């Protein structure tokens, strides 16, 4: 039993000492210890902590890592040192990804964490970085091309870089154009001289309601002629009316074919009664007397020849009255004004009476005939 009692006493003392160790057993918990355990903890953390843990760590920032590391290294007094080590280690993890991505932009973190960055080349951080850089690289690329309108976040990140400004310049102009629209309206004179001319076109292209108006305007460009046509129809209607009015209705048996059949027979004496078979000389006085009045035949002259138009009066498509307008005088002017395409001689060849001569010529011929007798 003595052995048992001694064992229990030893056990209890050991347990008590384990539970409540004397302060003398931990003589150096001061700054020296603090500095020493930090690098050890950092190295352990870097080696032990996987990439996933790194990705998770940056968000919680410094405090969360210090707590888990502290119990592992030293459960008691090192809790104060651990937060510092964890704080330094966390940015170290974030830094490598930022360095490869933006390089210049993350100089802040580089300055604060130079020591940790020196460690990064040893670690295989560059390999994890490429995936992280891929998202950041497109950001830079997008900032350079800039034509994409949704580059505002990258532009803000790359504000230090020059390429971003050009895109905002393009993006801003539309906003300025929109602003410029109200401006010229408000202040018509000064801005309208410069901006309005080029920009209204772009604004028109963008604005849907103007497009509808433009759609209506385009036909208008072609419709002025239609408007002109709207005025023209009246004259168009006049022409057929004139033709209808001028055109005479011929009685049965007085068609052009009937006239052709009549002229084909020489026995009809279309030149007139009491006339020699040969052509005669017609003086203007004689022509004037043959005007179709008082039972006389109507004569008319055309290109120096005299024709008896009396037989043709019922066959004239323009009517008797129109044809009689040239009776007893020259009809050349009226004939050519109305229907110059008509072949006069082909229609009235058999109606030719003689040739038109002057009064003196007729007198001289008579004197010559008298002298011969
Ligand atoms: C005083 C002289 C004459 C006058 C004022 C006159 C007037 C007219 C008029 C108004 C018409 C209707 C035109 C139309 O429908 O578009 C007409 C048609 C016609 N006249 Fe005369 N005319 C004259 C002499 C003559 C003579 C001498 C001949 C025969 C040689 C002639 C043969 C015709 C013919 C064939 C037509 C029908 C033309 C067609 O249908 O296209 N006219 N004339």
UniProtKB/TrEMBL annotation:
Key word DNA-binding present: no
Q: Where is this region: Disordered?
A: 21-236
Positions with biased composition (Polar residues): 78-89, 110-119, 175-186, 223-235
**Which domain of life does the protein's organism represent?**
Eukaryota
Q: Where is the Cytochrome b5 heme-binding domain?
A: 279-357
| Basic and acidic residues: bias regions | 31-57
Task: Write down the PANTHER family for this protein, in alphabetical order.
Answer: CYTOCHROME B5 REDUCTASE 4, CYTOCHROME B5 REDUCTASE 4 FAMILY MEMBER
Q: What name does this protein carry?
A: Cytochrome b5 heme-binding domain-containing protein
Q: Which organism is it from?
A: Aspergillus versicolor CBS 583.65
């Amino acid at each position: 039993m003595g052995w048992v009692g001694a064992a229990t006493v030893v056990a209890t003392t050991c347990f008590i000492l384990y539970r409540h160790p004397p302060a003398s057993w931990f003589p150096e918990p001061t700054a020296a210890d603090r500095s020493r355990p930090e690098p050890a903890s950092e190295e352990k953390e870097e080696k032990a902590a996987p990439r996933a843990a790194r990705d998770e760590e940056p968000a919680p920032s410094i405090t969360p890592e210090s707590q888990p590391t502290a119990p592992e290294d030293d459960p008691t007094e090192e809790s104060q040192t651990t937060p510092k080590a964890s704080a330094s280690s966390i940015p170290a993890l974030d830094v490598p990804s930022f360095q490869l991505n933006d390089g210049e932009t993350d100089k802040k973190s580089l300055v604060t964490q130079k020591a940790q960055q020196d460690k990064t080349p040893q670690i295989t951080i560059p390999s994890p970085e490429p995936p992280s850089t891929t998202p950041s690289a497109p950001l830079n690329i997008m900032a350079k091309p800039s034509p994409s309108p949704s580059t505002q976040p990258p532009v803000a990140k790359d504000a230090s870089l020059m390429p971003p400004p050009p895109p905002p310049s393009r993006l801003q102009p539309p906003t300025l154009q929109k602003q410029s629209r109200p401006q010229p309206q408000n202040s018509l004179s000064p801005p309208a001289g410069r901006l309005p001319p080029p920009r209204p076109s772009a604004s028109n292209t963008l604005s849907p309601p103007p497009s509808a108006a433009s759609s209506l305007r385009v036909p208008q460009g072609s419709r002025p002629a239609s408007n002109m046509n709207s005025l023209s129809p009246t004259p168009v209607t006049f022409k057929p009316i004139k033709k209808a009015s001028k055109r005479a209705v011929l009685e049965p048996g007085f068609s052009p074919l009937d006239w052709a059949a009549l002229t084909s027979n020489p026995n009809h004496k279309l030149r007139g009664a009491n006339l020699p078979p040969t052509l005669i000389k017609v003086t203007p006085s004689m022509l004037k007397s043959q005007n179709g009045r008082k039972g006389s035949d109507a004569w008319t002259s055309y290109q120096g020849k005299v024709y008896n138009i009396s037989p043709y009066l019922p066959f004239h498509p323009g009517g008797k009255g129109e044809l009689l307008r040239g009776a007893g005088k020259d009809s050349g002017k009226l004939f050519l004004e109305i229907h110059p395409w008509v072949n006069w001689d082909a229609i009235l060849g058999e109606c030719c009476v003689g040739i038109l001569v002057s009064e003196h010529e007729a007198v001289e011929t008579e004197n010559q005939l008298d002298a011969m007798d």
